[in-house]
Amino acid sequence: MATIESSMADIQKVHILGKEAIHCGFHLIPYIVETVLGSLPASTYVLVTDTNVANLHLHKFSDQFDAQIAARSVQARFISHVIPPGETSKSREGKAAIEDFLLKNACTRDTVILALGGGVIGDLVGFVAATFMRGVRFVQIPTTLLAMVDSSVGGKTAIDTPHGKNLIGAFWQPEYIFIDAAFLETLPTREFSNGMAEVVKTAAIWNADEFAALESRSSEIFAAIQTPSQFNAGRTLSTRSEAQALLLQVIVGSISVKAHIVTIDERETGLRNLVNFGHTIGHAIEAVVTPQILHGECVSIGMILEAEIARLLGVLGQVAVGRLTRCLKAYNLPVSVHDPRIASLPTSKLLTIDRLLDIMKVDKKNAGPAKKVVLLSRIGATHEPKATVVPDAVIRKVLSEAVTVIAGTPRNSPVSMATPGSKSISNRALVLAALACGTCRLKNLLHSDDTQVMMAASWISKYGATFAWEDGGDTLVVNGGEGALTPPPPGKELYLGNAGTAARFLTTVCALVRSEDGTQSTVITGNARMKQRPIGPLVDALLANGTDVKYQENEGSLPLKIKASTTGFAGGHIRLAASVSSQYVSSILLCAPYAAQPVMLELTGGQVISQPYIDMTIAMMKTFGIVVTRRKDEESGKLLDIYDIPTGKYVNPPEYVIESDASSATYPLAIAAITGTTCTLTNIGSSSLQGDAGFAKAVLEPMGCTVEQTETSTTVTGPPVGSLQAIGLVDMEPMTDAFLTASVLAAVACKPVSKERELPDAPSNTTRILGIANQRVKECNRIRAMIDQLAKFGVQTKELDDGLEVYGLEPSALKNGASIHCYDDHRVAMAFSVLGSLINGTIIEEKRCVEKTWPNWWDDLENKIGLSVDGVELSSQPDASTSGAGRDPEASVLLFGMRGSGKTYLGQIAASELGWEYVDADQYLETVYKMTCKDFVVTHGWDEFRATETRLLPEIISLKPTRTIISLGGGIVETEAARDILKEYAKTKGPVVHISRDIRQIVEYLTNETERPAYSQEIEEVFARRKPWFEECCSHRFVSIVEPTASSSDESLRQIQRTSREVGTFFRHITGVSPNLSPKVNLGQRSYFLSLTFPDIVAQKDLLDENRSDILTGIDAVELRVDLLSPHGAAKQPNVPPREYVIQQLAWLKHITNLPVVYTVRTIAQGGAFPDKAHEELFALLELGIQMGTEYIDVETTLPHSKIRKLAARKGASKLIASYHDWSGDLRWFGTEIEAIHTTASSLGDIVKIVGKANSLEENMELRSFTKSVKKANQSKPIIAINLGEQGQLSRILNETFTPVTHSQLPVAAAPGQLSFSQIQSGLHLLGQLPAKRFYLFGNPISKSPSPTLHNSGFHVLGLPHHYELHQTETVDESVRSIIRSPTFGGASVTIPHKLTIMEALDELSPAAKLIGAVNTVIPVEQADGKTILLGDNTDWQGIRNSVLSRSACRWTAQDTGLIIGAGGTARAAVYALNQLGVGRILLWNRTYSSATQLASSFPVEYNITALTDLSDISNVPPSIIIGTVPASAVTEGGVKLAPEMFGCRQGGVVVEMAYRPKVTPLLELASKASSKWTQVYGVDVLLEQGLRQFELWTTLRAPRRAITQSVTDFYNAV
Ligand SMILES: NC(=O)c1ccc[n+]([C@@H]2O[C@H](COP(=O)([O-])OP(=O)(O)OC[C@H]3O[C@@H](n4cnc5c(N)ncnc54)[C@H](O)[C@@H]3O)[C@@H](O)[C@H]2O)c1
Ligand SMILES: [Zn+2]
């Protein structure tokens, strides 16, 4: 039995709706129980909570309730109900479940319900209470910060429905809200930050002081929840720590505001919607990225965007936006959708402007379609006491990532403005004002991390300075602390984040701190990055001066512990090494007047760095009343690095205007210059110590502007538009940051340079900027950036070692509509917006990058300068003009390459494979000039040859625009004119193919060659010169593989065949005539690819040869894992395979197999080996894949989409597989995340690939229902969706498109859980997805047939459950008819004597079967309506054709003659086969002449068949292909008389024997006797080929050639 704990507690109470209902404190459980029991008598107390909270805190409640109920001896019970955590509980079902619990426990109207938990519990339980028994009393005990400050206060309760959040609910006020801040100690910090967003929000709209506290005390507030309070510390004031008090103060402050607003406007009619600040946009974002991103996180971003709306509308200043941003960041909240936490989510891609505006349309606050936003007017106040209607255009502008400046004349000219304050001056001014006596109003302060922490530092020191904002944040009022600094209380550290300048300045400031007994000290620290930044030289100087400084962690860096002595900073002679940072010097200078002794500061270490900054400090000290003198060498008058600083106190001037940042100042001045208007900057002039302040005089004046400067102001008036002058050489070494501004002006400085600035070696429109080499290593390589971006306007430039030259053009000559990539560099963005004020349609792609120095640049352009700025949503569609989609697939193909690369040979094969013409440009030249190329060169010289070649190029193209392979001389790329023609052709007309071959082979080949002109230089040198040109001009490349010399004639035949097949496939694909894609993918049939994980494919070429291995069996494509390629054995992460190696490997792969290749460069993050960040290298490799005609390119959707789209525009007939892999196991197959992934991938690729990781079998079902729903959608793209891991194997079995498979002969599976093709077939069978079928042979006699062996071995290798058997019958009888109509019937072979009679039992015949008049194959075909029909086909002719093609290199044309012996059914198939092979004339001989004539007349006349009477009578038309279709016995028994004349063809030919046994028949014997030039095809070969074809027709799978051949051969030899 628990004992009653003391309910004594110090409580802070807050009024709401006229009652003191909100009770706040620490460790309140006994107090809560006592208060509830004492003031809310009831028969039942029901506490509802979620499992997370229950585990942590429920027992304490039940203990106290039990104990106190017992002690009070009242008739009451306490029961509790625990529900699952999370938003999903806030549903109708969740509500019903609680109600059922209450009803089951017989709860009555007098029940009191306690809601213990976060907002989910509060909202849900509150709504239950509102309707249970028409409403019962309830109590809120919030345990999250969000619930404490927001959801529990105000009486709003609600549940979600699938239509949206909080759509059903009620206003129902709780009796009490108990805020026990001790609950926050168990809350995850992310949840705490989530609540802080609401706290910051409330302060931002209502209470500036509160906001200032939140802003400066974030680390203490975090600390308060991170240190657990022991022994109920904090329950009473006496045990409450300072951190706890602060935390409670923040919470109570926030609650008070909300309670106040709620009390005035309970039902949210006006004022109450102020608490929706940040929520209009925040909710829209949340709708897209929930549940990954929390409400407060979305609201945090929403607040910034809504504050930017206010800033754009001119009601809020930048300082406020900056403070808000910094404050939210301090609580670890995201402030932009580009925050990696959000940007890394797939759903973030859905955060388009249209989508967000669409969601905002249904906001509850809206009045009709108009959107309402709470506008801040300053920190702590709103523009109106309610939300303000804001036009869509404004919201759009703020949300858009890109902007365009509308070119024109600034409306506000003459402009007068101040530009953002200098950071260096701001930092110094803040230290000076804080140390001085009196009050100073700092104006135009640049609010940065440094100023932020310096202000925070004063907070901890009781007698330090104080700071206050005035004018809505435009002015900072500093009450100086006169340098009297006391140490902070023990335990408090000065946390500086990563603010570097602050760290350096404040280190010496801390040395000024004094304590009475000399025991206290100050600790200054920072974040991890800060703890590595050096501060050693400064500490050394202080130590030497007697200050006690200790490094707390790393020698030389923060944190530091600085002892507060009784006397403070000693002063006197201080030596400081000043070669690292001038900030050390400034730090000591700034504090020196407060030393006990006058300081003599001596700088040591040779070269003093950044003297101008030291001068700046000294000049500013003078303004605050302290004059520093720099010593001079008496004799030489040379300045020494020794400074004397008197002791004294700074005196604050009443006002100090921070000088403009001189680099920022260049932009408005440049706008005046370029638009011919006037601009005055009021806060920078000739007295400025900043180098960039020289810009107006050094650049603008010589360009033709009028420049007037006072000490503190600058006015520039530009000449009329279009009359800026080039200025020749300008050394910008003193003002390097301003060179970007100068460059954009130089682009339109078209008037000739004046005489005295003229450059002898450059045109008169040249501006040559030097002295800026350091700009290569800024935010980006700025010189390169300017060159590349100016090129988009058509502006020519030249890169120099130390700068660049820009050649000015008339403004009208610049291209409009340039879209500028900013490299995330503020200066690039601002410089090009200057150019945009003159050149129409200029788009600045990343507007946010200006935030670094001028966050409101765009607003200032609009409001202060008077140029309109529009938001632009960058188009995500690829540019149709470059997609090649509308290209004519029959456009001629241009070939070029080094001589000896096989251009002619390959070009001719290509032409023959495509059925196109082949034209050689050299020959064309020879025809035109009637001499050989060699003679031409000898007569006219190389230059003339090249010029002629180039001149003829367009001629040939226009002569042969289509259906021609045009082979060009290798030297064609030598002239620029020809290169331009080639590039243009590739871009707009057709493929330009670079044929290449290993250069060593070329050298070898050419050494023996004499026919063509000799190279004037060494071949390799020539190649090296041309290589980049080849690459630049071609759209595709074909790498010719020369295999080692064949060891046998069979092998050499295969080599030739491989090349023809490869060339045919390549050219058909790249032209688009017949892309080499898997037809199954689009038909939605199951398809598979095999992942090749070898580091070296070439070494595995035998494994990939279908004649030697079964590894590719059943496969529809092979995946080349480029990221795993490595010339040095297994690839190690990160792996970037050498380009040449990839080329060689891919070329080999394509040479060995005809299967489409899936080309994948998998990054490490997505489960591969390629480095994640190497985007340039990665896309270069993908581009290579497309160039080499790779059929499928895998692109990861996590890569930059702009790059993917560029690739897509180039892909031609190839397809992109847009892939996304989640290895975490967190990806679910339902909800918005997966939808977003899918939508993104669909928009990028032709095929979608999503890979998750299954933790349970059920997740495969979820995957399945996802893919099903996706496939139902209109125009859905094929999808590969699988789950990794063993738990995911089911998904691999069920996946339909391109299932990645492995094979037992591969070194490793490409992914965990990967199955082989045959495993998947077995799996499908067991799951009932692949029913076992029965196949038959019909005929008589058939007992010796090899067909069962053939097919059953094939089924076995593929893992198919089917069986093939013999069915011998005399006739096509009932048994046959019933077999073929059975549901398990898979197909049948038909042989003698049923080939004709079977036809009437079938439903349809293929065209071939019809014409041949015989059926040897029956195929059941399922129709769209689900019915099966029986199709009769004939594969005998295919057997003939395929065996001939695979065993001989011969090809036939209309000039060729073929001979068939016999006139039976097989002869009919032979006729058809010969015709299909292209033979122009067919001779037919049969013992019975009439049968021959009859057969001949049954074929169309085009077949050109002649029946012969005598076989020896053919010497005038010797056939080059002969097919024997009569049994061997017919010859041996004398019925058929063969004649040796048949083999009279001089070139030889192919003889096909259809008889199956004996292997060598009389016909073949005669052939070998007649000539060695006849290739023999055996009957068993034909049978094998027709069987393979049959197999494929039945199974729709590629037959396992090697395995089947093997088993048939074994069978044949055994019988
Ligand atoms: N009614 C309103 O005016 C109002 C206002 C804002 C938000 N809401 C609603 O509030 C809900 C969100 O509330 P939430 O952010 O508190 O989420 P939540 O209730 O889901 O709590 C967040 C997580 O923290 C856990 N948790 C809670 N207290 C804990 C503690 N002390 N220690 C450890 N874990 C703890 C919870 O179990 C949960 O997993 C949303 O449904 C939202 O619509 C309502
Ligand atoms: Zn909220």
From TrEMBL:
Q: Please indicate if the UniProt record lists Amino-acid biosynthesis as a keyword.
A: yes
Cofactors: Zn(2+)
Q: Known Pfam families for this protein?
A: DHQ_synthase, DHQS_C, DHquinase_I, EPSP_synthase, SDH_C, Shikimate_DH, Shikimate_dh_N, SKI
**Where in this chain does the record put each 3-dehydroquinate synthase N-terminal domain?**
82-193
Instruction: Describe the location of the SDH C-terminal domain by residue ranges.
Output: 1579-1608
The note on cofactor binding and number reads: Binds 2 Zn(2+) ions per subunit.
Q: Where is the Enolpyruvate transferase domain?
A: 418-861
Domain Shikimate dehydrogenase substrate binding N-terminal, by residue range, is 1337-1418
Specify the Quinate/shikimate 5-dehydrogenase/glutamyl-tRNA reductase domain's residue ranges: 1455-1517
Which InterPro entries does the protein's record reference?
Aldolase_TIM, Aminoacid_DH-like_N_sf, DHQ_synth_AroB, DHQS/DOIS_N, DHQS_C, DHquinase_I, Enolpyruvate_Tfrase_dom, Enolpyruvate_Tfrase_sf
The molecular function terms in GO held by this entry are: 3-dehydroquinate dehydratase activity; 3-dehydroquinate synthase activity; 3-phosphoshikimate 1-carboxyvinyltransferase activity; ATP binding; metal ion binding; shikimate 3-dehydrogenase (NADP+) activity; shikimate kinase activity
Q: Which CDD domains match?
A: DHQase_I, DHQS, EPSP_synthase, NAD_bind_Shikimate_DH, SK
Q: Where is the 3-dehydroquinate synthase C-terminal domain?
A: 195-366
Q: Which domain of life is it from?
A: Eukaryota
Which GO CC terms are listed, alphabetically? Answer: cytoplasm
The Swiss-Prot or TrEMBL record describes its family as follows: In the C-terminal section; belongs to the shikimate dehydrogenase family. In the 3rd section; belongs to the shikimate kinase family.
Q: What's the protein name? A: Pentafunctional AROM polypeptide
